[in-house]
Amino acid sequence: MAAKEHIPVGIGVLSGLKGRPILWHKINKQVKIAREHEFAGVSFFFYESLWNLATESPQRRKAAIKRLFHHQAQRPNLSDCKYLSS
Predict the structure, then answer these.
(1) Which of 42, 51, 62, 65 holds its CA 20 to 30 A away from the CA of 71?
(2) Ranges of each domain in the chain
């Protein structure tokens, strides 16, 4: 958490592995936790498992992603970071 005060930190969310899909409610929960802790963003690993190797259809996943990210996020301003301005 201390690094978050100096540089924008994004959280990697595992969206599944071949033969080991991650259920959407777990992905959703991880994204919400990252937001509650005010991290700079999230990144999904891996693209293929997010869409094509999931238990839900790609259409259902895309709809869920749209609901999860219905508001446009503001990008972190690097000039506001304490680390870079010191």
Answers:
(1) 51
(2) 3-85
